[in-house]
Amino acid sequence: MGYVVPAVKNNPSSDNKTWNWQWSRDANSIISKLGWTGLGQACGAYVKGSQNKTDYFLPHHKLINGKLTLVRGGVRAAMQRLKSTKLPATVKLKIYSHLAAHYRHFGDEAPKYKEIFTPEEVDDLIDFLCEEM
Predict the structure, then answer these.
(1) 3 membership: H or E segment, kind and range
(2) φ, ψ for residue 73 (rounded to 5)?
(3) In angstroms, rounded to a whole number, what is the distance separating the alpha carbons of residues 36 and 33?
(4) What is the per-residue pLDDT across 76-132, written as a single tens digit (0 to 9) for each?
(5) I need a surface site. Which of 16, 31, 68, 102 has the fewest CB within 10 A?
(6) For 8-60, how does the pLDDT look when each residue is reduced to its tens digit (9 = 90+)?
(7) Residue 62 contacts residue 26 (beta carbons within 8 Å)
(8) Are 117 and 92 in contact (CB under 8 A)?
(9) Residue 126 three-state SS
(10) Which of 62, 53, 84, 67 is nearest to 18 (CA)?
(11) Any idea where the domains of the chain sit in the sequence?
(12) Eight-state DSSP code of residue 107
């Protein structure tokens, strides 16, 4: 299964600190206007080529005034859910980096790694990095 973490896009953005995402409303409106590619851009990761909403993870952009818009509250909500998301540690690390870039855009500091990754995931990441070297 190939996961895709989209490129970081900070604009347009909304400083709204609240997040109210409904898959049936928000995902459908994005798919209707921008297709499945648009939904992928709204999320932290997705399964390449999938047209199944269960393969899209950690949305943090919404369609606002017809444009895919980064929402501050969505970034925070996605980061909070990242810890409990059942994805490989290497994918979670890429999502963490993506979301941390959004945090910086809003002038915020992202949570520390130890708040997001379990000790087992950290071990997996260290093993992965050592294999890559």
Answers:
(1) strand 3-4
(2) -65, -30
(3) 9
(4) 999 999 999 999 999 999 999 999 999 999 999 999 988 999 898 888 888 888 887
(5) 16
(6) 999 999 999 999 999 999 999 999 999 999 999 999 999 999 999 999 999 99
(7) yes
(8) yes
(9) helix
(10) 62
(11) 3-132
(12) T
Residue 8 DSSP code: P
Comparing C-alpha atoms, which of 59, 35, 28, 34 is closest to residue 45?
59
- Length of the chain as a residue count: 133
CA distances from 8 to 11, 102, 109, 128, 129 (A): 9, 7, 16, 24, 23
**Alpha-carbon span 34 to 37, nearest angstrom:** 7
How far apart are the C-alpha atoms of 48 and 60, rounded to whole Å? 18
Q: Is 67 left (phi over 0), alpha (psi -120 to 50) or beta?
A: beta
DSSP letter string over 19-83? ----IIIIIHHHHHHHHHHHHHHHSSEEETT---GGGEE---EEEETTEEEEEHHHHHHHHHHHT
Identity at 89, one-letter amino acid code: A
* Number of other residues whose CB lies within 10 A of the CB of residue 35: 12
The residue to which tokens 């859910």 are assigned: 81
pTM beyond 0.85: the answer is yes
